[in-house]
Amino acid sequence: DYGSGMAYNFFYGYLRLVLPEFGTQSVKGIKKRIETFINKHRLSDSAFPVKKLFILIPKSLYIPTDLKDVSTDWPDDKCWMDAAMSLEDQVFDRAGVKQRLYKNSVYKIKNRDSPGAQPVYVVAEGATPLKTCYDVINGDPKMSRVFKDHQHDIILSFYKTLRDIIRDSDDCRDLCEIIYYVDTDDNKKRINVARIILE
Amino acid sequence: DYGSGMAYNFFYGYLRLVLPEFGTQSVKGIKKRIETFINKHRLSDSAFPVKKLFILIPKSLYIPTDLKDVSTDWPDDKCWMDAAMSLEDQVFDRAGVKQRLYKNSVYKIKNRDSPGAQPVYVVAEGATPLKTCYDVINGDPKMSRVFKDHQHDIILSFYKTLRDIIRDSDDCRDLCEIIYYVDTDDNKKRINVARIILE
Ligand SMILES: Nc1nc(=O)c2ncn([C@@H]3O[C@@H]4COP(=O)(O)O[C@H]5[C@@H](O)[C@H](n6cnc7c(N)ncnc76)O[C@@H]5COP(=O)(O)O[C@@H]3[C@@H]4O)c2[nH]1
């Protein structure tokens, strides 16, 4: 089905390629790239407590281009997250595209409930296939109906399948955290994604 | 179903983002980027006859990392295609990843049947979701059986759905050429992809 198909694609076409170490000089896994980032930006190790990729799976399928836009305690508009520098790029040839580039973004999170606390850095992004699914729903006259009616099943199936694939993968199990969350309640109050990540 | 799902993902998550012009300085569509390439490398316009993206859809799902590997008249090993420089990169934020980079590769094709003829340049790549599907079949103990049994339906559904989506898209219809081909016959003779492109 569509949801689990996307999960297999997302794992085999992306996570499995960018997260683990491959033992070659040129392709560094996510742990090494985070350590390089810590050294390059002279951070304390405690500033980067979780050396994994956070993958956001919002029930609404909506992921903004910049995660800071979902890091406020609405209707307050102070953002908790801000984009910092990216990790080093990963570059390799794939399916005829020479030197395809894979990039991961680092975000700095300020806990606005405890202003004295040290900001925390994380590598986070939305699960891209869901954003694409969202674009199909909002852009395609033919399929929009079909996708919209099954939206809930699709995302649940995506989440569960991805969670199972990762749990069964020796290479990737400890290198990412999947966060499924309900981002709009009846008041359309936006969840502060930063809060969720900090937990 | 899985094949058509992949086609929607490929179109909305990629083709629709990289092919058309968007009227902004920073995001150039494929035609402009090809024209920039022609000028930058001082090519004649006839050296780059088709200003579109060639998308290869091999029945076997196998796409090598470098397309030159499928451009020989097996068992001869003279390649017809060679990777040239890439087009300019396209960079924009997507789903929380800042400055994600999209790249397309240019290949130079020498027609070895007519050695005197001018080499021809094209922008070509495999349809990456198929390579990912191939990786699932060859890498995943759980799903490999399922995917393998339906491989033929998956790829046919992918091809037909993609062809229809593109045909219905005003933005992308004239900006890409989809090539579905059978790449292995009973003798496992590899098709010369370069020949197909030249037609
Ligand atoms: N966050 C993130 N960063 C990446 O660099 C990346 N690359 C892939 N993915 C996601 O992994 C999965 C498998 O990727 P695949 O390459 O088989 O399909 C991709 C691929 O066929 C095509 N595509 C996307 N970006 C590129 C690109 N830069 N070059 C060529 N093809 C691309 O369009 C499909 C859908 O892309 P996304 O909808 O962005 O999500 C993909 C997909 O869910 C990524 N996700």
Describe how the helices and strands are arranged:
The structure is a homodimer of 199-residue chains.
Chain A: H1 2-18, H2 30-40, E1 53-58, E2 81-86, E3 90-94, E4 97-102, E5 105-109, E6 120-126, H3 128-139, H4 144-149, H5 151-167, E7 176-181, H6 193-198
Parallel strand pairs in A: 1-6, 1-7
Antiparallel strand pairs in A: 2-5, 3-4, 5-6
Helix pairs in contact in A: 1-5
CGAMP (1SY) sits between chains A (9-10, 13-14, 97, 100, 102, 125, 128-129, 132) and B (9-10, 13-14, 97, 100, 102-103, 128-129, 132).
Protein name (chains A, B): STING ligand-binding domain-containing protein
Domain STING ligand-binding (chains A, B): 1-199
Keywords (chains A, B): Membrane, Transmembrane, Transmembrane helix
Multimer state: homodimer
**Ions, cofactors and other bound molecules:** cGAMP
Q: What is the first-to-last residue Cα distance of chain A? A: 32 Å
User: Spans of chain A of 5+ residues with little confidence (pLDDT < 50)?
Assistant: 186-191
Query: Which range best describes the helical content of chain A: under 10%, 10-25%, 25-40%, 40-55%, 55-70% or over 70%?
Result: 25-40%
Compute the gyration radius of chain A: what is it? 17 Å
Structural class of chain A comes to: alpha/beta
Average pLDDT of chain A = 85
Broad shape of chain A: globular
Strand coverage percent of chain A: 15-25%
Number of strands of chain A: 7
Strand line-up in the sheet with most strands of chain A: 2-5-6-1-7
Please give the count of helices of chain A: 6
Biggest interface reads: A-B, 49 and 49 residues
Pattern of helices and strands of chain A: HHEEEEEEHHHEH
Major sheet summary line of chain A:
5 strands, mixed
GO cellular component, one term (chains A, B): autophagosome
Protein name (chains A, B): STING ligand-binding domain-containing protein
GO molecular function (chains A, B): 2',3'-cyclic GMP-AMP binding; cyclic-di-GMP binding
Keywords (chains A, B): Membrane, Transmembrane, Transmembrane helix
